[in-house]
Amino acid sequence: MILGAVFDMDGLMFDTEKLTYTLQKKIVREFFGADFSLEQYKQTIGRRTADLPLFFKKLYGSDFDFDKFHERCLTAFEDYTQNYGIPVKDGLFELLDELKRKNIKIALATSTTRKSAERALKIAGVLDYFDALICAEDVKNGKPDPEPFLKACRQLGVNPRECLALEDSFNGIRSARGAGTVTVMVPDLIEPTNEIRKMCFEVCADLYEVKNLIQ
């Protein structure tokens, strides 16, 4: 029996990965004179911001100013979403409503900071659905470590074996599976490998399929 549900955010609830890549690619080109491929961007998906400086310094050299880059990315993302809103994945509201109808508690487990996560949830109009938020600064070990999902389950007061975990990234799937949750992948930019499929209870095409699954 499912008593709780833990959501990832970017790429799972919100169609923001493509937007983020477009903005980051432009900023890397304009301010650092380099290329940033989609395959390179995919390697950052599911990682905490604190884990990214080393990744970018390996790509562009030790003098790459990650703090400057990150600040420009945040500003560009905030400007876009302030003007155009947060692109929401199809079926999100229907799934959240179904979970509430079934009295299933809902948590967020994201690698994003609390400030950014709360802002995005508010803009999208879904913050009030959540009973708990686990953000980047709330854990010592981010995804793929199971800590984010274990902490989310504890805050919901639900055994991980009775908790649905929804993810789109490989690191997220490894984190959720390691926590012992009922792990479901809804792919975004990255299709699951055979290894990742074996970690999942189900792979769904979209959030409508997840709703049908819990029904």
Summarize the structure.
This protein is α/β, with parallel strands linked by helices and about 220 residues long. It has ten helices and six strands; from the N terminus they run βαααααβαβαβαβαβα. The protein has two domains: about 140 residues, 3-Layer(aba) Sandwich (Rossmann fold), CATH 3.40.50; about 70 residues.
Description:
This protein has 215 residues and is α/β, with parallel strands linked by helices. Helices cover 48% and strands 11% of the residues. It is built from 10 helices and 6 strands; from the N terminus they run E-H-H-H-H-H-E-H-E-H-E-H-E-H-E-H. A 6-stranded parallel beta sheet has the order 3-2-1-4-5-6, sandwiched between helices. Strand 2, helix 6 (114-124) and strand 3 form a beta-alpha-beta unit. Helix 1 (17-32) packs across helix 4 (66-84) and helix 5 runs parallel beside helix 10. The model has no long low-confidence stretch (mean pLDDT 95).
The percentage of residues in β strands lies in 5-15%
Largest sheet: 6 strands, parallel
Any idea of the CATH topology of the largest domain?
Rossmann fold
CATH architecture of the largest domain: 3-Layer(aba) Sandwich
| Rg, Å, rounded | 17 Å
Strand tally is 6
Count of discrete alpha- or pi-helical segments spanning 4 or more residues: 10
> What's the CATH H-level superfamily name of the largest domain?
HAD superfamily/HAD-like
Q: Would you state the CATH class of the largest domain?
A: Alpha Beta
The global form is globular
Give the averaged pLDDT, no decimals: 95
Helix content: 40-55%
Content-based structural category: alpha/beta
Order of H and E elements: EHHHHHEHEHEHEHEH
- Low-pLDDT parts are none
Query: Order of strands across the widest beta sheet?
Result: 3-2-1-4-5-6
Question: How many domains make up the 3D coordinates?
Answer: 2
Span of the ends, CA to CA: 11 Å
